[in-house]
Amino acid sequence: MKISKRLLKIASMVPLDIPCADIGSDHGLLVKYLLDNNLVPFCYASDNKKGPFERLKKNLSTYISQNKVEVDLVDGIKNLTNKYKTIIIAGMGGDLIKEILEKEKDKLKNIEYLLLSPHGKEKELREFLTSNQFQIIDENVVYEDHYYEIILFKKSPEIVNYSTKQLEYGPINLIKKDETFINKYQDRIISNTDLLNNHQLNHLRIQEIKETIIKDKNILKELNC
To answer: For the stretch 26-62, what's the b/e string if a residue is b when 16 or more beta carbons lie within 10 angstroms of its beta carbon?
Structure first.
């Protein structure tokens, strides 16, 4: 079963040999890949929609019968038990991911790793989790029709303080200076510059776009790109 470039990168960042939970698992392709390749011992896979959940059960039927997968039709992480130490959430908006985690914040006490791939709002997600004693230990940017950021957090004994720049662009991204990361912000400068030609934008939106362009240009300059 073929999986996307984005899911392959996520799979490469999953902490090995640790039970993991894939929240919003959709068709279960990531979970199947992890188990097919013996990267984790067993998984929890959930979805909150009946259709995808039925496909999830079908795709993972072999591993369900072997008691290597627990499937659940549920919203969020409210049914997650303490045996799962890694949570994976990909393919949702950053605000929704934050809402899911914040709603059941007590469960995060038992979590060692969070592997997240938000559609936007990366800064807000970094702020929320680092203020709740998670540090960022790896980051990657993948291009597959769109740019996708993938962030791996690990539980920290204390609150980790990052600068505004690190929260905005990612502390590991800024160290790696990966080509896809650079391309993301070069492309954003171009698209935002084009947006300024839209005469229907109000003054506040225009100012916001200009500030974003300046920030992106400054960060690329600092990285000598």
So the answer is: bbbbbbbbbbeeebbebbbbbbeeeebbebbbebbee
* Residue 144 near residue 6, CB atoms below 8 Å: yes
DSSP-assigned letter for residue 202: -
pLDDT at 1: 65
Largest CA distance in the chain: 60
How far is Cα 148 from Cα 151, in angstroms, rounded to an integer? 10
Res 149 pLDDT > 90:
yes
pTM over 0.85: yes
Contact 101, 93 (CB under 8 A): no
- The two three-digit tokens of residue 40, written as one number: 């984790």
Candidates 18, 150, 51; CA nearest to 97 is: 150
